[in-house]
Amino acid sequence: GFLFQVPSFQGVAVRSLSTSSPHDHPEHGRLVYKGNLAKAVLGVKFFSYSTSIFNLFMMPYIMLKSGIGVESLLVQAAFYGLIGLFTFVTPVTLHILTKGYVVRLYYKEEMDTYTAITYNAILVEKATVFHQKDVKIPDITKMFTTFYAKTKSMLVNPTLFPNPQDYNHLMGYDKSSFLKFEDLEEVKEADER
């Protein structure tokens, strides 16, 4: 897949003059989905990062004041291990779990392409563009993956699509070989005739 950032000075100027929503990006197409946990994901990541930075700056001070440097090697190892766990493992784990969380999803009908907005490791919005035919549904239900866009895992909440048809098209359910209810009704009517 190809990923790119979309900085646009003209877009900012136009948006500030118009009364449109800050999520209107005509270059991406029509907004079909908005994740309701976007602020929570951003908040948790930001808190985790700021805690890690605080820990890094406080570690030398704590060691100096507590005299841990003079204590046994075992106490030192346990202390560093605990601080290291919260400083590095937590933000990395959080990023891995939330990197595919789709904040917004846009659809360009004429090209059948989607633009998924996610947060990258440094909390900046990242745009991933993919075609509907690039969408793969995992064989087994995965906890943090609704579908794959080429190889990138994406997480959306199906109930947050204002138009269920948009979700069906994204997942390719509208192209499936299953007979729809309307089709069955037409077949029944034809038989009766």
- Calculate the terminal CA-CA distance, rounded to whole Å: 51 Å
Strand content: 15-25%
Structural class designation? alpha+beta
Number of continuous helical runs? 5
- Helical content (DSSP H or I, runs of 4+): 40-55%
What can be said about the biggest beta sheet? 5 strands, antiparallel
Question: Are there runs of 5+ residues with pLDDT below 50, and where?
Answer: 1-20
Q: From the alpha carbons, calculate the radius of gyration and give it in angstroms.
A: 24 Å
Q: Please trace the helix and strand order, writing H or E for each element.
A: EHEHHEEEEEEHH
Major β-sheet strand ordering = 1-5-4-3-2
Total domain units? 1
> Which shape, going by the Cα principal axes?
elongated
Would you tell me the overall average pLDDT?
77
Q: Characterize the quaternary organization of these chains.
A: single chain
Number of strands: 8
Organism: Notiomystis cincta
Protein name: TMM70 protein
Transmembrane segments: 40-62, 74-97
InterPro entries: TMEM70 (IPR009724), TMEM70/TMEM186/TMEM223 (IPR045325)
Give the arrangement of secondary structure elements.
Blueprint: E1 2-4, H1 9-17, E2 30-34, H2 38-66, H3 73-98, E3 104-108, E4 113-119, E5 125-131, E6 135-136, E7 147-149, E8 152-154, H4 164-171, H5 181-192
Antiparallel strand pairs: 1-5, 2-3, 3-4, 4-5, 6-7, 7-8
Transmembrane segments: 40-62, 74-97
Family: Belongs to the TMEM70 family.
Pfam families: TMEM70
